[in-house]
Each structure stands twice: as C-alpha cells, then as structure tokens.
Design a protein that fits this description.
mainly alpha, two-stranded antiparallel sheet, 3 helices
Length: about 160
C-alpha cells in the first residue's frame, strides 16, 4: 500500500484514504478515487434499477391486462344475462300476445254473429248497449259492420257534437 504524508499535520496514512485520519485534511487522490468508485457503483445500481423497473412494469402490465380481461368477461356475462332475460320476456310477451289474439278471435267468432242479428233486426239500442259494454274489454271495431253501425248510430243519436 502506498503511504503518503499529510501536508497539514505531517502524519503518515494510506493514500486511498479521503482525509487524514488525524486532522481530517482532504486527500485529493483518495477523494477522487472514492468519487470514481461511488460513481461506478451508482451507475451499476441504475442499470439494475432499469431491470427492476422493466420487470415491475411488465408485472403491472400483466396485472392490468388480467384486470381488464376480467372486466370484459364480467361485462359480457352480465350483458348475456340481460339479453337472455330480455329474450325470455319478449318470448313470453309474444306467446301472451298470441294467446290473447287467439282468445280474441274466439270471442269475436261467438259474439259478432249476435251483433249481425241485432243489426239486421234493427234493435240498435240493444246493439249500442252491447258494443259499449263489450268495447271495454274487446276489440269490437273488428266487427265487419262496425263503421256501418257507427254511421247509423250517429244519424239516430247524433255524433256527440
């Protein structure tokens, strides 16, 4: 080891020391060597930081991708459930509409011939009463003579004006 003499106090110490161990006078050679060593250590640390940051970044990307995928899958599942529920409800409505339509046709088949008889016999008061009563729950305007009867009713009782 190289020994040097302190220019301040005259003590002898190792040249690698940054300061005199006795009077703390700075040793330029040792301080420069230590500075360069520290600088190289920092460079290595920064290089390893890049590797750690890259690794952490990749981990975060994977985690974010998994989270996004979970959100997409859950959203798709909820959407599929909603569409399924809508389809089932629409199908029930369609079936109910079809059943209601069939029931209405049966009702018309049973009652419209009675309307025809009342119209042919001229019993307009009774026909008006039946149409008013049945019109609350059934489609009486589907009767083939409905418009003809409304004209007769308007001429007999007025059009409500």
């Amino acid at each position: 080891m190289k020994q040097i003499e302190c220019p301040n106090c005259g003590a002898v110490f190792d040249a690698k020391e940054t300061r005199c161990p006795y009077c703390t006078y700075i040793n330029p050679e040792g301080a420069e060597a230590k500075y360069l060593r520290d600088l190289e250590n920092r460079r290595r640390e920064l290089d390893s930081v890049d590797d750690r940051v890259r690794s952490e970044y990749r981990g975060e990307i994977r985690k974010g991708t998994r989270t996004a995928l979970k959100i997409v899958l859950i959203t798709a599942l909820v959407l599929a459930i909603l569409v399924g529920a809508w389809f089932i409800s629409e199908n029930k409505l369609f079936n109910n509409d079809r059943d209601d339509y069939a029931a209405e046709l049966v009702w018309e088949h049973e009652h419209f011939p009675e309307y025809d008889i009342l119209l042919e016999s001229g019993d307009y008061d009774m026909l008006l009463e039946r149409i008013a009563e049945d019109g609350e729950t059934h489609d009486v305007w589907n009767w083939e003579h409905y418009e003809e009867f409304t004209e007769i009713a308007d001429s007999l009782w007025g059009d409500g004006q």
